[in-house]
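[step 3/7] inverse_fold.run input=structure_tokens len=174
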């Protein structure tokens, strides 16, 4: 049983299901690294996936990473083709964890009346993010990774995310 659980977790981390919906009410960018997830979320929105981007801005962010998030958050609204406006709304997670980001983002989504979300994260985090958002959000949840993945090794991601994956099942976010 332990081996089967380990293999399932490894598959979910190393080969996650990624989504590419045509349209959602909002894109949620979870924090984690100064990679291309912010640029990719904006690219998706500019190509018509949504008019709303929610960005986790954790209080623990520092240095160049914090400056990059602050700059991104200050760039609202973004204009897309046809003078379509994309609103970027940054939020502080309830706690600086994936669970805290999930609970804060889903609360905002419910308050705004959103029925569908696309969450953008890095490849190794996709399955765990999906679990948390499906636990907390009553609407449609889609999760994707970025076109230029982090250089994090598969081994490191597997070790880190497998523990988090188990935690997601044992202690639901909501």
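[step 3/7] decode complete -> sequence:
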């Amino acid at each position: 049983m332990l081996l089967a659980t380990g293999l399932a977790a490894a598959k979910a981390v190393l080969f996650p299901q990624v989504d590419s919906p045509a349209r959602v009410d909002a894109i949620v960018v979870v924090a984690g690294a100064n990679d291309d997830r912010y640029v990719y979320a904006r690219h998706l929105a500019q190509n018509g996936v949504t008019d709303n981007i929610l960005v986790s801005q954790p209080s623990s962010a520092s240095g160049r990473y914090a400056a990059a998030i602050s700059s991104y958050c200050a760039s609202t609204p973004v204009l897309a083709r046809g003078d379509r406006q994309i609103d970027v709304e940054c939020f502080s997670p309830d706690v600086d964890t994936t669970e805290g980001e999930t609970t804060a983002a889903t609360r905002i989504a419910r308050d705004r009346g959103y029925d569908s979300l696309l969450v953008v994260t890095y490849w190794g985090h996709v399955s765990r993010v999906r679990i948390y958002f499906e636990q907390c959000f009553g609407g449609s949840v889609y999760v994707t990774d970025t076109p230029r993945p982090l250089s994090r090794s598969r081994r490191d991601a597997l070790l880190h995310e497998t523990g988090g994956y188990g935690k997601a099942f044992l202690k639901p976010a909501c």
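[step 4/7] annotate
The chain has a mean pLDDT of 84.
The chain is about 45% helix and 15% strand.
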